[in-house]
Amino acid sequence: MSTLLRMDFIFYFLVIVPSAIIHEYAHGWVADMLGDPTARHAGRLTVNPMAHIDPWGTILMPIMLSILTGGRFLFAYAKPVPYNPYNLKNQKWGPVMVALAGPAANLLLAVAFALLIRFLPLPLGLAEILAIIVYANIMLMIFNLVPIPPLDGSKVLYAVLPNSANEIKNFLDRYGFIILLFFVFFLFELIAPLINGLFRLLVG
Hints:
single chain; about 200 residues; mainly alpha
């Protein structure tokens, strides 16, 4: 791996991990607003990395994914914020709102940094750094909306599926991680146009 590629990897890693932490914080914050204090009581309503780092999802998995995919794909997640859906004021749509809070936080970050790129006279190097932040957050948002457990999109899918679809839910819950790995290595290109298109739309 060239020095330039190593630096790109290190910087991207330093971008995606804080973005994943903010993603998890948003889950806990919305859950707390909707009546469930579990994350607050667990000390997870903080952006302190030490409260959110997961040895596998935050450190080892991104490194392995980058190596196995030749640098084409890097994804990290922070330790999931605990919450009790039975404490939520809205039992049907509350879990959906909590699930969507993480991707929404990534979208807000992407939009905020994209606005800086579009409307401030930034040096080229700084603009490129901010563009990486925008891209990382768009990728986190769209990837997490894929309806495969344990991703956030699965919570949305479960809310709209009828009760008669319990077999589908059980199948996804049982084999979700295997399906997710298959998606990452063989089907990720399906969402790449969405990621690239939204990136171009935001940064201009």
